[in-house]
Amino acid sequence: MIEEPYRWVEAIANRREYIETQLASGSPIAALSFRDGILLLTLGRSRQKIFEIYDRIAMGAIGHPGDIERLRMAAIELASTEGFTRSASDVSLRRLAHYSLSPVMKNAFEQVYGAPFLARLVFAEVGTRPEDDLFLRVEYDGAIATNGSAISQTRQNFAVLSATNSSTEAMETLLKNEQRGDLDLGGAVRAALDAWSVGHMTAGADGEKDLPEREAVSKHRQEQLATAGIEAAVLERANKTAIRYRALSDEEARSLISK
Questions:
Q1: Which residues contact 201 (CB under 8 A, 6 or more apart)?
Q2: 3-state helix, strand, coil in the chain (%, to 5)
């Protein structure tokens, strides 16, 4: 009986290592505030990674498509139920993540005889001002990071997803230095693409603290844009309708890069 807790700890460690390996090839996602809303952006060749959840809330995800879809549908159902039983204005990203998704993912991770969720999630909720925007990252074990809190306790109007801790930190460092709430959409797209490139370049460089040189980032971005499509969406801040989510086509996103 004394050995049982140690076996559980060992099983959890093995489980974490397995999940990290499964997520290692995921394409990074950057979410950041700009003057007129929130932008979510990634590059890819096939599967969708950015989704509308409810009115002012959007989600990005990396991981197994089946698990992402299960979590997406759970988030939509929870938000819709809340909006129906109360009101749309009562639907809160904090409640959705802290009281619903996080406990479910934590429980699945710790039940070592069941299947965990092979997914990392990032959520964004647009506010009336950039400083009111909310970002949450939910890990496969249910842990939650808020508004770039992996860097410091200072509130940051961005969040990122990446395959490794080092690449996540590199993306956060770049956005901390370059992201501003007064950016227009074109500036936000360029900043998000730079963050994606840094995350993609450093995904296999565990322990590396320095950001890649600007020229190397620009070269990598151009190489990837030649073979991959841009998937992006915005949550519009001043939209007069209830639905704030708008997907950007690859052509529209590319046209904004040079502006």
A1: 167, 212, 216, 217, 220
A2: 45, 20, 35
Q: Where are the alpha helices (DSSP H) in the chain?
A: 4-23, 65-85, 93-96, 102-110, 165-178, 185-202, 214-225, 250-257
Q: What is the pLDDT of residues 102-148, one digit of tens each?
A: 999 999 999 988 999 999 999 999 998 888 999 999 999 999 988 74
Global pTM value:
0.91
pLDDT score of 21 more than 70: yes
Classify residue 127 as exposed, middle or buried by CB count within 10 Å of its CB (0-12, 13-18, 19+).
middle
The token pair that represents 40 in the structure block: 């979510």
Cβ-proximal residues to 35 (8 Å cutoff; 6+ apart), any chain: 130, 181, 182, 183, 184, 237
Q: What tokens appear for 33 in the block?
A: 């505030």
Residue 154 has pLDDT above 80, yes or no: no
Cβ-contact 193, 221 below 8 angstroms: yes
Q: Mean pLDDT in the chain?
A: 89
CB–CB of 258/193 below 8 Å? no
